[in-house]
TrEMBL record:
Name of protein: Cell division protein ZipA
Species of origin: Methylomonas koyamae
InterPro entries on file: P-loop_NTPase
């Protein structure tokens, strides 16, 4: 039986650097990078202007993404997913994917202060003006209320990367 690929995914507050880190890790580990933002923009162009829109469209595409990624992992290719694992429910989706694919995994938790995240969000707005309406301090404050740090009892192979301001 061929060796399964490893699934690498991320937890971290909005602006912690998950997308930047996912690109770095995918290059280092010779992995396919799958970005939620890219898929959402390709499948639902100009349709996400509020957090509720994000939840709706993200939920619609996840069954397709899960079966696609499971297939990639089953043939032995590593996958880095730039999808948030920031809540228990989001991490349960990853747990289901890991179970379906029967693959090893690593959850990378980018632990960053609120002030660093807000600074990085402002920088991202300047570099990517198309994200300016969604990437705001107000959105950060709203979504951070729902953030749940990963816990040992969740059973993930977790690496914590502390990011300082």
């Amino acid at each position: 039986m061929p060796k399964k690929g490893t699934l690498i995914f991320f937890c971290g507050k909005m602006g912690a650097g998950k997308s930047t880190f996912s690109k770095k890790i995918s290059a280092e580990r010779n992995a396919v990078l799958i970005s939620e933002d890219e898929w959402l923009e390709a499948l639902y162009p100009n349709q996400i202007s509020a957090f509720e829109d994000y939840l709706k469209y993200s939920g619609q595409m996840k069954p397709l993404v899960k079966s696609h990624v499971a297939g990639i992992l089953k043939v032995g290719t590593n996958v880095v997913m730039d999808f948030p694992a920031n809540t228990l429910n989001q991490r349960q989706w990853f747990r289901d994917l890991i179970s379906e694919a029967g693959c090893p995994h690593e959850l990378i938790y980018l632990k960053a202060s609120d002030s660093l995240c807000i600074t990085q969000i402002a920088q991202r707005r300047a570099e990517q003006p198309s994200r300016a309406t969604f990437d705001t301090e107000e959105t950060f404050q709203f979504v951070t209320k729902y953030f749940q740090e990963p816990q040992l009892n969740e059973g993930f192979n977790t690496t914590v990367v502390a990011k300082d301001a």
